[in-house]
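Re-run with default settings, no changes from the original entry. Doing this only to confirm the output is reproducible before filing.
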Amino acid sequence: MSIDIIGPEAEAHLDWHGLMEAFREGHRLPKAEIGDTLLYRGEDTLLSRAAWIDGVGSLVKTANIFPGNPGIGKPLILGAVNVYSDMDGSLLALVDFELVTKWKTAGGSLLGAMQLAREDSETILIVGAGAVGHSLRQAYGALFPDARFLIWNRTISKAEEFAAAYPGTEVSPDLETAVRMADIVTSATMVTEPILNGEWFQPGQHIDIIGAYRPDMREVNDAAIRRSSIHVDSRDTTIGHIGEIQNPIDRGLISEADILSDFYDLDAGRMTRHSQDEITLFKNGGGAHLDLMTSRYILDAWQAR
């Protein structure tokens, strides 16, 4: 059996709406078996994620997350993605790590917004001008093509470079002001202490938080948790693993029952907005089952090109 080696050139054959359908179909199959291994060395993280979905296949994705890399001109995250056959366990494809991560991460947030954000959302704030921020601009731009986009970044020059790359995107120098103006706030930062204050949130907003992936990381504070209806991409990969969710649970601020839905509840209609004034908060944990669904979508698109 030949092995597909799929690089960045496959992106020309992908579209965000197609990935959304792949996610919906993937969550109608038997629930994924998943396993994560996290190893730490100071600020550096080795994250190995495995997933198996009956009817799709299996995947192992290894991510080396080195916060110091951008300072020496290297990507923040480096790794590899292996996709295996559901029939006999053979290796089907080696898929470009950055391609899978980009589409999985932004795609998960996009599906959350499709379910939870108001359809009339007009102003979208992106917090963080890194690689994920660029992916979010492209993904949200596909779902909300007429939206006004704002970008905030701690380093203003990077925000200016970001805005220059996307017509119709404006730099916001003050985070609080930008949050209060937005209908959707999507945040992808590497902070460990919250930078988004729930007291800034406005009725009807949708808050999409991505950056925190370790137990010691949070992007939103307790006020954000108290004021919001909370949804996640996967209970299995957020509860007990990610500080954004587990820290408030450990301190009794919320319980697991306050996590209203994940993507396995899509067909049951539980991932939904109940009023125009409700503040919805979606935690994108980016589990390996989403990597598998994304990789399978990319592989199928590549073979059908």
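DSSP finds nine helices and 13 strands in the chain. The radius of gyration is 18 Å.
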